[in-house]
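Q: I'm writing up a methods section and want to include an example of the input and output format. Could you take the sequence below and give the corresponding predicted structure tokens, formatted cleanly so I can copy it straight into the document?
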Amino acid sequence: MKNILVLGAGLVSKPGVRYLLNQKNIFITVASRTVSKAEDLIEGFANGKAVQLNVSDEVQLSKLIEQNDIIVSLLPWVHHFKVANLCSKHNKHMATTSYVSDDMKKLNNEAASKNLFFLNEIGVDPGIDHMSAMKIIDEVYEKGAKVVHFYSYCGGLPAPEDNDNPYGYKFSWSPKGVVLASRNSGKFLENGKLVEIEGKDLFLNYRTEKIEGLGKFEVYPNRNSIPYKDLYNLKDALTVMRGTYRNLGWCDTLKKMVDVGLIDEAKKDYLNGITYRKMMAKLIGENDDSNIEQKVAQKLNLEPNSEILKRFEWLGLFSDGKVSEHDNVLDILSDLLQEKLVYKDNEKDMIILQHKFTVENADKSKDLITSTLIDYGIALQESSMARTVSLPLAIGVRFMAEEKFNLKGVHIPITKQIYEPVLNELETLGIKMVEKKYSLD
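A: Here is the clean output for your methods example:
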């Protein structure tokens, strides 16, 4: 019997926890600040228990880690290093879906010296993207071919039938992080040229991509793609670009939100008790909020009937409603987005992930290979985001418990030893990348 500790019982945790509870010879302890959430996850299972935990209580956290064999952190990423240190101290394996931080990298030698395996980045993005990309890259190399262009795009969006608001987007948790992504710079390699985009210009640099059966989407650069050239061993690649999918209109709208100051975290002393109209007036340097729609249009160089202004109006930015009680505009905007762009109980989300590889074969002929995942949530049960984040993690943890991975140190799932069994198991759960090949000659 392997004892597994799951830290966190948030919105993405249920499918993965339930998967593990259905395995043999595994006992799951779910620890959460709100113990009722942990209790919901293990309800009906004799091989699970719920405990209350405040992660700032390092004594209790250390004790729980010491009592278990594999530690799964579904906590916010800022806590992973603390958990990892305690795992090293107590000689415990660890798994998480988050990106490997610089601090986590520093634990590699220590973990390896203790024969510990710290598996990171095994969710959807990062996670399924790594595994499905490496599967094809390895197959290309096995045939003596090479990858000359690589694009990888991913996005979580409403399912088409529930895409019913002007923004084409809905939040299943706090929107602040998604909005803050509008500040990220972008860096990628395309046709042998390094492309660098400042955060302020991120949404000026989007492109339109068509997904078979779904239509057109916007794609904007996802942070720094350059490390993936080495990480994926794309030694011959002239293009390495990762991007994020959004529905049409998102990028232009977010750009104007940035331009008008709606993403500003600085404290403003005028926000207490004012209306959204008055806030918008203040943001463009006006005291009078009459005809604010026209004034904002002029400030942002928009036509009065522009779709962007209509989105602002639909959201309530020109209304006489009182802003929420914050001292900065970003938090006020986040509250408004959380109120208006939300999934109803019977609605579904959708994950789209697609890789595109231009492959040069040994005979110099060229092919285009696509690998595409389109996954939908299950209404009233679980979201696609929860499935695609927590199930790869849970499968990885199951195989760790079964000692199927002969690895030590800090890893991400880019080796065949990891990606092959995990992708195969995901297929049995209905999460499958569909691969297609087209001749470019």
